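Figure 6 in text form: structure in, sequence out.
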């Protein structure tokens, strides 16, 4: 029963991430089309694309730095510590 819940929750989270990425890509593409249709140049399109990228990366960086700093890195060393019996706070609560 536990493994079924883990698999279902992992699938739901993966679908939410895929849906969010699809929506972000559609918004970015729509903004580029709108800028092109209204006669804005290539630099304006590039700056909007770059600005959205910087905004999304900034949100991710702030979440890692201030909400859960243990999320920095790949996580492999933390899992190895847990498997060796060392208890780390805020990892796999």
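Output sequence:
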């Amino acid at each position: 029963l536990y493994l079924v819940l883990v698999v279902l929750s992992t699938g739901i989270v993966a679908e939410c991430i895929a849906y969010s990425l699809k929506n972000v890509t559609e918004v970015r593409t729509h903004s580029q089309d709108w800028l092109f249709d209204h006669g804005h140049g290539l630099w304006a399109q590039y700056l909007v694309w770059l600005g959205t990228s910087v905004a999304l990366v900034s949100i991710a960086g702030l979440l890692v730095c201030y909400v859960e700093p243990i999320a920095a890195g790949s996580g492999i060393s933390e899992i190895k510590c847990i498997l060796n019996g060392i208890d780390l706070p805020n990892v796999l609560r």
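Caption detail: The chain has a mean pLDDT of 87.
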